[in-house]
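Re: that backbone. Tokens:
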């Protein structure tokens, strides 16, 4: 019996020892893992960054676009005339990534936003893959169109200009929008209640500059490019974005008043733009008035929702008038014409519609216009668009836009015309599944110039720059959103 008890006790002790050893080998209980959680405070698509109170949305889009007769691509941007070197058809592929981070604070929402990506275009010279600053060589690039911080009503960084409404529903931008859709800025927006807001912003002025044009040295002939001497001893030629401007001394001052309600939205905007030449002495002599004036622009825009006709239907109306800021009503922001600062297309015969976009004109003392001075250009643009939903997945936009420029009288005398650029466009977009658009768009455009002194035009000599020309084009685009 004694031996039996010893055996039982020994077995129990052994089992306890083994159990203790096995317990020592068990893993320590892990801390709960932090999973990504949905943030519903700012709408769909936001998630908390683990370990923080920051809500982040990652989105973007990618589109592939095939274009016919795109005036935005080809050697006509440098030659000013259609020829066999130009691309009649071309492609554009763009991918944009969007990062939107928000946090709730005692001052309201703290937000940072970035939008940028990659773009590839058919090259005028057929380069397959070449990142280059040359107009005729570059066909791919990295780009960005927004990078800003918003806090307590302030906006710091690159954002949509507070001068524009940016409500167009065309796939390609029509003329009539400010050239500085995305602008570096410091802005403050006050929410006044009932969907009404007011904004004052200081924005980069260099993005709203067309040339300060200078008269030719020898009227009645096809003069060589004008070369002017700056204070620093540097020289610049005639034509081109920012040509003739001094450095940025005063940024653009912008103010708007906006209302957003169930019926749609409305906005009025104003802008002051400094026009100051970099020329003090040179071949044109001393400029009167120290070569500095102030341009300005006004905008009015309305968007009406029209559910009586169709769910989602909208009517968009916008008008802009400017003096000394043609980029505020700019025609070159459109893919329906070339990106150069001069709109010019060759016609049969001697008619050569040639509209030089200029913020101001400085006539040369040797020309018929006489004494030198800084003369500001007047311009306006109109935009009418209607978007209709045929079904929930099929929609169209039809519209008409106009850009008109009244060049200074002294410029007319020296051969630079007034001009009107009209565009009519229509599209059809099908969304077979969520976040996929398949669309086609066609347009017709007409450029008409008048009031130029034929013998005085420095670009064409005695060729008649008063005329008109029409052209058409279109595109197909497939877009995937996420």
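Recovered sequence:
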């Amino acid at each position: 019996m004694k031996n039996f008890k010893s055996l039982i006790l020994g077995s129990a002790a052994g089992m306890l020892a083994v159990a203790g050893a096995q317990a020592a080998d068990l893993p320590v209980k892990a801390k709960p893992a932090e999973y990504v959680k949905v943030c519903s405070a700012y709408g769909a698509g936001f998630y908390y960054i683990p370990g923080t109170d920051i809500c982040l949305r990652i989105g973007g889009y990618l589109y592939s676009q095939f274009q016919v007769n795109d005036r935005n691509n080809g050697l006509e941007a440098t030659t000013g005339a259609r020829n066999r070197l130009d691309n009649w058809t071309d492609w554009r592929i763009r991918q944009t990534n969007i990062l939107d981070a928000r946090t709730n604070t005692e001052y309201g929402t703290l937000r940072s936003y970035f939008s940028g990506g990659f773009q590839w275009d058919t090259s005028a010279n057929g380069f397959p893959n070449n990142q280059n600053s040359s107009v005729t060589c570059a066909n791919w690039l990295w780009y960005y169109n927004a990078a800003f911080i918003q806090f307590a009503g302030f906006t710091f960084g690159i954002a949509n200009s507070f001068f524009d409404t940016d409500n167009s529903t065309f796939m390609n931008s029509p003329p009539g929008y400010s050239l500085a859709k995305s602008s570096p800025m410091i802005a403050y927006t006050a929410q006044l209640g009932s969907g009404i807001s007011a904004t004052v912003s200081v924005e980069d002025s260099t993005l709203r500059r067309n040339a300060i044009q200078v008269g030719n040295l020898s009227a009645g002939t096809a003069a060589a490019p004008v070369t002017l001497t700056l204070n620093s001893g540097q020289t610049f030629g005639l034509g081109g974005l920012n040509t003739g401007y001094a450095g940025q001394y005063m940024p653009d001052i912008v103010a708007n008043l906006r209302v957003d309600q169930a019926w749609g939205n409305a906005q009025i905007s104003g802008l002051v733009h400094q026009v100051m030449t970099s020329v003090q002495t040179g071949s044109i002599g001393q400029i009167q008035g120290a070569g500095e004036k102030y341009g300005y622009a006004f905008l009015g825009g309305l968007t009406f929702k029209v559910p009586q006709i169709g769910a989602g239907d909208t009517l968009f109306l916008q008008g802009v008038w400017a003096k000394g800021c043609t980029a505020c009503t700019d025609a070159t922001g459109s893919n329906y014409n070339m990106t150069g600062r001069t709109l010019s297309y060759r016609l049969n015969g001697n008619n050569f519609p040639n509209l030089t976009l200029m913020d101001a004109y400085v006539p040369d003392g040797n020309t018929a216009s006489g004494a030198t001075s800084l003369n500001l250009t007047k311009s306006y643009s109109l935009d009418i668009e209607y978007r209709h939903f045929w079904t929930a997945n099929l929609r169209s936009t039809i519209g008409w836009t106009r850009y008109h420029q009244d060049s200074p009288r002294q410029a007319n005398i020296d051969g630079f015309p007034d001009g009107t650029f009209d565009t009519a466009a229509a599209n059809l977009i099908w969304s077979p599944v969520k976040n996929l658009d398949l669309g086609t768009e066609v347009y017709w455009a007409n450029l008409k110039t008048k009031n130029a002194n034929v013998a005085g035009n420095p670009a064409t000599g005695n060729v008649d720059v008063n005329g008109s020309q029409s052209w058409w084009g279109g595109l197909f685009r497939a877009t995937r959103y996420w």
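The mean pLDDT is 77. The domain at 57-481 is CATH 2.40.160.10 (Porin).
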